[in-house]
Amino acid sequence: MSFNVGTPDRIVRVILGLLLLVLPFVTNWALFGSPVWVWISVIAGLVLIFTGVVRFCPAYRILNLSTAKKNR
Q: Which helix (H) or strand (E) holds 58?
């Protein structure tokens, strides 16, 4: 498997993923009053963290995108 997520992209993904994972539990936002939005936020956060850690994004593969540097 080739990598398609570069370092700056990884950092942003992990930070946003952690925020989405934690926000429903530490804020009193009305949005997270519904369990549906809590689950959406948690799942999106986990997906972002996972794709940042493994450096591969299936959506990038489908769209033929890459933020990783090419090895020569």
A: helix 58-63
Secondary structure in 3-state letters for the chain: CCCCCCHHHHHHHHHHHHHHHHHHHHCCCHHHHCHHHHHHHHHHHHHHHHHHHHCCCHHHHHHCCCCCCCCC
How large a percentage of the chain has pLDDT more than 70?
97
pTM, rounded to two decimals = 0.89
Nearest to 23 by CA among 36, 33, 12, 32: 32
- Over its C-alpha atoms, the chain yields an Rg (Å, rounded) of 14
What is the rounded distance in angstroms from the CA atom of residue 44 to the CA atom of residue 40? 6
For residue 34, give Cα distances in angstroms to 17, 26, 27, 47.
Answer: 20, 15, 13, 20
